[in-house]
Amino acid sequence: MCDRLRMIRSELSMTQEDMARIIGIGKSALSMIETGRASLSERNRNILIQTLNVNPEWLESGTGAMFNEQFPERTFLKGSDRPVGSQSVPLYNVEGTAGLVPLFLDKASRQPVDYIHIPNLPKCDGAIYVVGDSMYPLLKSGDIVLYKQLNDINDIFWGDMYLLSIDIDGEEYITVKYIQKSDKEGCVRLVSQNVHHADKDVEISRIRALAFVKASIRMNSIR
Description:
CATH superfamily of the largest domain: Umud Fragment, subunit A
CATH topology of the largest domain: Umud Fragment, subunit A
Radius of gyration: 19 Å
Keywords: DNA-binding, Transcription, Transcription regulation
Number of helices: 6
Largest sheet: 10 strands, mixed
Distance between the termini: 29 Å
Organism: Alistipes hominis
Protein name: Helix-turn-helix transcriptional regulator
Order of helices and strands: HHHHHEEHEEEEEEEE
């Protein structure tokens, strides 16, 4: 098991800090697992399977492919979320709608490119394709995120993942980030999953649209 954790990190070009952050333990605890002085918990094992698409058979015995060919949808639920048995979530082309702001303001006039049907998700307002690698390896460019629109910055849960539209010199910047409290007054801190992207403090007044990421779908190219 310890060798296989190092193999996963090597394959994904991840440091111990990267891996520890994803599975929610300290670097020293991960080091102990990788050197055989501690065992991988069932919770950590499930995170590797669900978040990094690791093949559970390979993780357990070393047989088969390291990663599954297809990645299932992932949900990011709150205790207050109530699953909806069946819903049609509209998938939008953000470029075609000229950004999140007009999409959020007038969803009725925007034509979806398709609809997504996944049972037992919490209520979602829409879905868009991810652009960029700031949330890699949790999300990669081309994946789909399903979101619930928020109207008040005070409704956020610190540390959770959000879809945002930010005003930068009069232009809209759309991104998916973790939102954390900032030491700077009137700001929030945007944190990436990708350690090569630095954290950034952004003035709350520059956030033009905000949505909680409820689920994501990994898009794989099978050749």
